[in-house]
Structure formats: C-alpha cells, structure tokens
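Any chance you could type out some protein's one-letter sequence along with its backbone structure tokens so I can compare the two?
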Amino acid sequence: MASVDEIIERLGGPDRAAQLTAVGTEAIRKWRQGKSIPPRHWPVILKETGLTLADMPGGAAPEPASPDGRPAGATAALVLADGAVLWGRGFGAHATTVGEVCFNTSITGYQEILTDPSYAGQIITFTFPHIGNVGTNAEDIETTTPAARGLVVRDDPTEASNWRSDRSLPAWAASHGLPGLAGIDTRRLTRRIRDAGAPTGVLAFPADGRFDLVALAEQARAWPGLEGMDLAKEVTARQSYTWDEAIWAWPDGYARQEAPRLHVVAVDYGAKRNILRCLAAAGCRVTVVPATATAEDILRHQPDGVFLSNGPGDPAATGEYAVPAIRGVMETGVPVFGICLGHQLLALALGAKTRKLERGHRGANHPVKDLTTGRVEITSQNHGFAVIPESLPANVSVTHTSLFDGTNEGIAASDRPAFSVQYHPEASPGPTDSHYLFQRFVEMIDRAKAA
C-alpha cells in the first residue's frame, strides 16, 4: 500500500494533484492529515499513476462498474456525439435531452443563465463549482419557461442558503422539466470544448436507470446543430404586450415606470426580462412584439425607437424574416438599438455577414473595449455567432471589440440612427459597466425627435 504522500508526489505534487482530481489544495492537506483519499478520486489517481486498488490507502474499494461501464452511484450521463460518456449523478427532472454542449464561466446568476432564452438548444456546463448554493426564487428569472435543455455541474447542489430562496435548484429544475448532471470533472469537459469546439451531446437521466449508450450516441450524432437553426420562433412572445416593470432595488423590489416620456417597441427574439426593465427604467413605455413582426406591425405602434433583443440560434436563419422588418424600420428614420442576436440581425440588415464561432462567448467576465471612448467594460455575454467586421459596409463602423479574441462587439451606422452591441448591457456581472448604453439609446431618440 502506498502512502498518501507517495501518491501525491507521483501525481506531481500538491498543486498538480489538486488539479487532476478537481479539488482545492485544502483537500490535499486533509488527505495527508487523515492518511486516506476518498474513493471517488481513485479512478483518476489509478489512471495517472499506474497504481492498483491494492495500493490505495484508507477507505473501502469502490464497487465494480456495471456491465455498461457505469460507475457505482452513477444515475445520469452525458453522451457526446463521438461516443464519449461522462457519468455522474442526476438531479432535477428525469428526462433525456439533446443539444449543443457549451460552458459558462459566471460565478453568480445561475438562475438568470438557465432562464435566458438565448440558451435554447444548449446544455450548459458551469465552470464554477458551487451551483445551487443560494437556491432559486420567483424573481430572478429572465423568462417563465427555461429554454436551456440541461445543465452540468461539478458538485451536487447543496441545501440552499439565502433568505430570498423559496425552492432548491433540483426542485426548481424538476418543476421545469430540466435535467441536471452533477459529479463530473467540469474542468476537463471545459478544456475539451475550448480545444475542440462545442460538441453535440445527450444528457440522460432516466427514471428507470437504464442506458442504451449506442442509441444515445446516435441521437447526439443525428442532431443537426445550431448552424442554420432558427430558434427565435420557439422562444418569442406569441402576441404583443406592454411592459412597465423597472429594475429591482432594495428594499422595495421592482419599481414601476409610471411616467414614461418615450415609447419603445422591443422586438422579442428571446428577450430577457431585465432588458425590458432597463428600458423602462430609462424612461420608456415598452411595447413587446413577436420576432416575426413585420415593419408595418412595428411601426403601427408609432414608436420613438425600436429595440432588437437577444435570442438564440443562427442569425442568418432568423434574418430571413427579421432583416426585411429591420430594414423597413430603418427606412423611416426611427432609431434602432440591438443587442446579442439583435446586434447580428442589425448587421445583416446593414449588409454585413455573420459566422459561427467554434466556442462562443458565455460568461460574466468578458473585457470589451469601447473604441469611441477608450474605456474597457467587463461584460456579460452569451452568443455562439459573431459579425464579420470585414464584411461591414463603408457606412458602418466598429465601435466595440473583444479583448479576449478581437471579435466584433459593437457597430454603429454613420448615415442613420442605428447601433448595437454583441454583449448583454442589462446584466450586472459584478459591475454595471454597460448600463450607459440604454441612456445612449434614449439620447439618440431625443436627437431624432428634435430633428
């Protein structure tokens, strides 16, 4: 039998041991103190060191795997299109779902992320380990029904610890038919996505505990992927409605905009509620229209400005009906502001092109430079497509750029009142760096009205 110290050294030292087993260095210290290593880490250790079960100190040997290769205690799996199987513990709804597997680097806001309609067609891997620790509530949602297809986390969601919580994450997920997978090495999965792009996968949490891995892999391979897919129609409002709820503030909660001075029509390609709240807080009466609204549908509301919302899917596919509507609005001189998918659709309407990113941008820590001011913003992002800056016509300039990879993050037209950004300015990923864009939109409307 090898000692704990010997095993740690064979793994490459404490820091490397912590990295390989996805624990903190404090856990390594406890291994040494207790002279044992929890059995759940043994498979990684055996693989990395060449040791056998007989060499492992402390604890009982893990139960043998089932005939399908399932480790003891595994109740759910993520099966990728290439046949790779990631076993873990299921929570939430007993369901089987297929989608693009992506990752999000946010430390907070998991409920807002899970209810962001822009995640339609995707299974979200959270890189932060403590997902579910503050539970869920009825206020921190971006839409009533989550559009994400599943979630993957490292640690089992713990008992909620927050005064605002009214339901645990597993119970909330189950109520929305959302399956979850815990207990896998999310660092390893994230590196896989980072290096090879977002794969298609099937998240299976069957109630009967039976897995047909061959069929699940085939289901993953058969899914067509997000490119060419119009998902805005799946998440948009079915009819027009008005919105007057403003942003949340302690201790009163959400405010109401009772004296708006401007009227904005928001085209809902998958709009988040907090976007509408920010528009209301900026002094706007908001009318929300479906994604399929024509220019005539939008203009009959006599808006002072038109907002193009975020949303999921391929902008080129949604653009089949959205681009003619946006062009019709711009021809009248009504100011236009777009974000996320709305940014991509505005670019298409102005004559540019978009492309699918290999990995996408998803997280609350993305630095973006505003080229008009030189200021750097820490932004919240969620997109898998991007505007090709080289395709922009001469009358459209780049206003923002990503400091991660140089991709386009904002544009503005020089011959008409229209601008957009790729990120989510309504979000508050710690700072509120990007809230100024709503005021910029309002000032553009004021200038247009004055002219």
